[in-house]
Amino acid sequence: MSWGAGCRIGRRALLSAALSFPAAVQAAQGKSLRPPPDPPRNGPALSIRDRGAIGDGRSHPLSERYKSLEAARRVHPHVRSLDQECDWAALQGAVLELSRAGQGGTVLVPPGQYRLDGEIILPNLDRYDDAFNEVEIVGAGMRASLLSWPVDLGPGRFAIRCGSRQGARDDNKGYQRSRIAHLSLRGPKPGNRPGDAPPGMGGIALTSRFLLERVGVFGFRVGVDVWRDHSSLISCQLTKNHIGAYWSEGTDSFGDHLFLDTDLAGNTLASIAVAPENGIDHSSFLSCHFGFSPYAILAEDGAPKRTFLSNNKFLDCAFEACGNGWIQGPMAEMYGNVLIGCSGSLMPDYRLPKRPVTGLIVVRSLERNQFTGGSASFGDGTNDRAADIETAALVASSAVGNRFEDAERLIRLGRDGLAPALSVSGACRANRFEAVDCTGEFRKVGSGGVDAGNLVQRDYDRVRRLEQDHPADGVALTSAPAGGIVPVATSGTAPVGKTRAAVRMGSLLHPAGGLPQRVDSTPGPFLPVGIAATDAPAGSDSVMMDLRLASR
User: Which residue ranges does UniProt annotate as crossing the membrane (predicted)?
Assistant: First the structure.
């Protein structure tokens, strides 16, 4: 290459200059070619191996290393007996050492299986503590770092708990902020058969503002005991416990929890259970997996003191293979929740014996909830084993102001004779639905009952078969006896019963003389209720009608 007379650059010189140019620029700017350092940790880090943990899965009492308790306590001041495990002493000692340093830190759990025989207690933090002495426990991976409690510590005890979670739970003002990540906890009795007797001890006992990230908890009475507010579980696995996550008694919790991509399936009683004194509110469950247990979400027996489920969001969650139902709380309230894109099914393999499948959702009060997308499908009559449902898909003492979008399959349960959509013993009003071809409202049936395809009229807060000289209010999409709940189409296109005469598509349809609950295309004294959307031959019993009730 030539750049004018007397100026020639060879290929080797050009390549050398190109390779040296980035280094020259870096040097000029005073920068290193090495990657930037990792962000600082939360205080110092301390490996439990440095505190004497072994992690081979076998029992190693302190007596293997120390000849006397005094000698052991010079290294582990917190121990009380030479029978205690070295792994427990190391982990609890690391937590205490960092918490007493005044700036918190991270306890590292290298790969291994660590045998423990006591509770791991995290430091108690005060809301107004300027030092904010947080201690985290971080492993090398959910399948790499395993903390094991082969011996049951008994009721009221936990594998890991906060300092404010005392046995008597008399400190309800404790404030905690900590993180547990990338490890698993195994309890004394893993299992997933309904009816198995649970162990006494629990897994992790939270207070406020905890973060559990990629943590596995299995083999305990309760995987995670949720107390107070603002905790998050991300990509966790709570399975083979008696209860996956438990909202226990004794707290003034106000909710605001986040469960993201968390697996709570495969527990012997429920994925989630709630004590009567507690409730789940203003929390979000995103892409979570419930089921493979008798219940997905269960309200424990007893007079409730708070709303069972209120103002929660369930997005893209699966209530899969539940034995006895999805959401169960016959004495509880379900208020203001939104279920978007959820789905579920029933499976007898996970059913508790001698407990009926009353319904998929059974609560005392069902008010202002919204079911959108997959949650409103409620199965297709095959994969959800709807024939096993004894009462209805949704059972409540009162149902007010609920919205069922994409309710086609919910209505189909009744059309196919499998189970009614709703069973409501008390007030039932303003429960709107949207199906593929029509919209309307679930309404209670008055005297005489109704049949699918009947034109119906309002009877105060109920509906009944249309009578002469009364305005039609809609079309019953299923049959129901007096006191039952029927979906009534009020707009769109729906099948309606007709007289035996033929009907041509486009004909105006009127209530038939003598049979006002059916339609006829013969002009008569009654105002039209719709237009025939299809042809219907003579002798057929129904015709698709485009409802025009507003013109009556």
Answer: none
Give yes or no: residues 328 and 216 share one domain.
yes
Compute the distance between CA of residue 325 and CA of residue 358 in angstroms, rounded to an integer: 8
421: pLDDT strictly greater than 80? yes
Separation CA 211–CA 224 (nearest Å): 12
Amino acid at 113: Q
Sign of CA dihedral 357, 430, 373, 282: negative
Q: Is residue 195 left, alpha or beta, with left meaning phi > 0 and alpha meaning psi from -120 to 50?
A: left
Task: Count the domains in the chain.
Answer: 2
Q: Please report whether residue 218 resides in a domain.
A: yes
Domain boundary residue among 98, 117, 136? Answer: 117
310 shares a domain with 257:
yes
Query: Which CA distances in Å does 337 have to 172, 186, 499?
Result: 27, 33, 44
Answer yes or no: do 51 and 167 share one domain. no
Q: Is the separation of the CB atoms in 457 and 529 below 8 Å?
A: no
Separation CA 268–CA 102 (nearest Å): 42
Q: Containing H/E element for 22?
A: helix 11-29
Residue 24 has pLDDT above 90, yes or no: no
Of 240, 297, 296, the closest CA to residue 268 belongs to 240
Give CA–CA dist 157/175, Å, rounded: 20
Domain shared by 288 and 436, yes or no: yes
Q: What whole-number distance in Å separates Cα of residue 164 and Cα of residue 474?
A: 59
Question: Most distant CA pair in the chain: distance in Å?
Answer: 114
108 and 183 both lie in a single domain: no
* Partners of 124 in beta bridges: none
State how far the Cα of 426 lies from the Cα of 276, in Å rounded to an integer.
22
pLDDT of residue 130: 55
Q: How many CB atoms lie within 10 A of CB 461?
A: 11
d(C-alpha 468, C-alpha 501), whole Å: 20
| C-alpha to C-alpha distance for 68 and 76, rounded to whole angstroms | 12
Q: Which helix (H) or strand (E) holds 93?
A: helix 86-100
Q: In which band, very low, low, confident or very high, does the pLDDT at 360 lie, cut at 50, 70 and 90? A: very high
pLDDT digit string (tens) for 294-308?
999 999 999 988 999
Q: Let me know whether 66 and 180 are in one domain.
A: no
* CB-CB contact of 380 with 407 (8 Å): no
Distances (CA, A) of 536 to 168, 472, 510: 73, 21, 15
Q: Does the residue 168 lie in any domain?
A: yes
Phi, psi of 260 (to 5 degrees): -120, 125
Quickly list DSSP for 424-451: ESS-EE-EEEE-SSEEEEEEEE-TT-B-
In DSSP terms, which residues pair with 344 in a beta bridge?
Answer: 319
Which residues constitute the domain of residue 57? 41-117
| Two tokens, residue 216 | 């596995």
Question: Do residue 176 and residue 320 come from a single domain?
Answer: yes
- 468 in a structural domain: no
The SS3 of residue 133 is coil
Q: Is residue 15 part of a domain?
A: no
Nearest to 375 by CA among 428, 296, 440, 307: 296
Distance CA 44, CA 245 (A): 31
Domain shared by 186 and 74, yes or no: no
Residue 67 CA to its chain's centroid (Å):
51
